[in-house]
Amino acid sequence: MSFRVVTMSVAASLIVLAVTGWLLVDSSSRGILAAKTSQSVSEAAAVMDGMQASLRDADLRTSTVNERLTLLARDAASRGNVGHQYEVVIAGPVSDIASAGVDVASVPDPIRYAVEVGGSEMFTTPTVVRFTDGRADRAGLVVGGALLAPGSGRYPVYFLFLMDQEQQTLQVVQRSALLAAAAFLPLMTGIMYLISLQALRPIRAARETSERIAAGKLDERMAVRGSDDLAGLGRSMNHMADELGRRLEQLEDLSRVQRQFVSDVSHELRTPLTTIRMAVDVLYEGRDALPPLPQRSAELLRQEIDRFEVLLTDLLEISRFDAGAAELQADEVDLAALVAAEVAAQQSLAEAYATTIHVDATGDTRCQVDPRRIRRILSNLLSNAIEHGEGRDVDVTVRANEDAVAVAVRDHGVGFSAAQAHQVFSRFWRADPSRQRTVGGSGLGLSIALENAELHGGWLNAWGRPGHGAQFRLTLPRTPGGIVAESPIPVVPGAGGVR
């Protein structure tokens, strides 16, 4: 931000300097030209008066007008050569008469026309004085008027005033403007940099403080000095941090209360559920002696007790994860063997849905894992694939590399959108809230599976597309807590090996 502030300030200063310099040079040029014009007109008018008097007193009977004009031109040129003030060009009756070495083309045609048709006033215009004797062209000013010869007419006279001194003065003004700009820009840059540091330091401090707060250091606060807007920003930041810390404490307290409530309720329900289970088992075992309606009620009661027990078990498992009490009982097993065992356990469910499970296992899939937790993950993935596979085949793939082993469960059923790939692991989440569950029903299965995978230091990823089914990939390090750079199985079916 400091760079942008300094850059914008310097750019604005350049614009101001350019406009100011242009106005200064233009104003100086106009002033110098106006002063030169006034001085030149006064001097030319004085010379013209003398020439007019001399021409009026001349005896044109003893000399021609052209001869007299030539003498006047020479006399005027001699006086003009003193100090190199001006050159003279007179439009004679035969041809133009000019000072020695002066090109008569130095007098522009517009002023010639103005003098020829004008009255007694003087006319001026800038020009370039050219010479025929090898001298370089020089900037000048033309002052024109007319001599009246008795009985002969008007004879225009043009004075060419050189502007060497004025050009030098203008160059000095231009150099001064450039030097002032060259000195001002570094000074302005340094000043703006210091100002930006002073102005942006509280903003930078606010950013750094907010980053530390975002990193979890909720006791960080900004130092507030003064009563300006930046001090107000600091106070607002500190107030926000106070409120954020207070709200987080409230949320943490609420979360602890909720976790404790779930844990307490789950444990408290264990005892009455055990009593109810015993009574239901008695009724269920003796259902054949009951009338049809009580017999069906005993069967439904047994089913619902089973589902309630699954839900209670899931709640207890979640409460252990929330409390940080979940522990691994790692043992070296063959993941392919665990998959085969769980597939065999799910065969009855697969037959109920007319689903065939295909297993493809290759490579050395031995790893150190908690068999019970891995079976729990596999059970959830397989039951979900069977339930939502719409009777189509389910493919189970087991692969390994040097660092990890992986298993992917692929169904070809209803699937889900790409935006729901992370939501499927949320607690109690359903892709279709109106869908009736026929397997499990707690809504915690995938959440628990993800917790178990992360407890091993592994990953559990989901891929799905509506109408094209879904694939869940479990990747585990060969030893708990090991580093896994790449999974042996792609998360997207048919893709290359990716994280």
TrEMBL record:
Please give one Gene Ontology molecular function term for this protein: kinase activity
PANTHER family given in the database record: HISTIDINE KINASE 1 (PTHR43711:SF1), TWO-COMPONENT HISTIDINE KINASE (PTHR43711)
**What name has this protein been given in UniProt?**
Sensor histidine kinase MtrB
- Location(s), subcellular: Cell membrane
Gene3D superfamilies linked: 1.10.287.130, 6.10.340.10, Histidine kinase-like ATPase, C-terminal domain
Catalytic reactions of this protein? ATP + protein L-histidine = ADP + protein N-phospho-L-histidine
- PROSITE patterns per the record? HAMP (PS50885), HIS_KIN (PS50109)
Organism encoding this protein: Propioniciclava soli
Q: Its principal location? A: membrane
Where the record annotates domain HAMP, the positions are: 197-249
Which gene name does the record give? mtrB
- Give the transmembrane region(s): 177-197
Q: What is its EC number?
A: 2.7.13.3
> Entry's Pfam families?
HAMP, HATPase_c, HisKA
Instruction: Report if keyword Nucleus is assigned.
Output: no
InterPro entries hit by this protein? HAMP_dom (IPR003660), HATPase_C_sf (IPR036890), HATPase_dom (IPR003594), His_kinase_dom (IPR005467), HisK_dim/P_dom (IPR003661), HisK_dim/P_sf (IPR036097), MtrAB_MtrB (IPR047669), Sensor_HK_Regulatory (IPR050736)
Domain Histidine kinase stretches: 264-480
- Protein keywords: Kinase, Membrane, Phosphoprotein, Transferase, Transmembrane, Transmembrane helix, Two-component regulatory system
